Amino acid sequence: MTSNALGGLRIQAIPLGTMRRLRSQGYDDHGHPWVRRVDREGGAPLRCCLRDSLAGEGIVLISYAPVRAAVTVDAGAYDEVGPVFVHEDPCDGYVDQGRYPTDWARVRPQVLRAYRADGSIADGVRVTPGDDYDAAARELLSDTDIAFLHARNVIFGCYMLEILRA
Ligand SMILES: [Zn+2]
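Above: the input record for the complex with zinc ion. Below: its predicted structure, written as tokens.
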């Protein structure tokens, strides 16, 4: 076990700068228009703020490529694109508290995928409510070959957030 196993975590939402750019250009990075929908029920996981939407909030479903956003090289075949909900209007984003968002850990089983710095997948674990999501993340990040983790939903496979060493 290296010191990384005991180190802190940094939880990353879609960056504010990326959100600003997407809102101003009016479409996502894959050509889909910025279409407002009113979330009547609430409960859509927002990747800008890392919380569920509230009933009545304006949200947008966009395509997002999280691996491309995480690496400085061409991720090649690992450059996955998928749907994520974000706030329609400018929001404050997520304030990192150094742990997987507790509201989501209570209800959302996740896959923690471990990536190398080139964007290739190296490892992964499944966590379910009741597990210690942060301990699982630290364990994966204790491998110095791992650069970052992506949490994804288990059934739909959608990207939720990024986990880095603090
Ligand atoms: Zn937001």
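Notes for the reader.
The chain has a mean pLDDT of 95.
The chain has four helices and ten strands.
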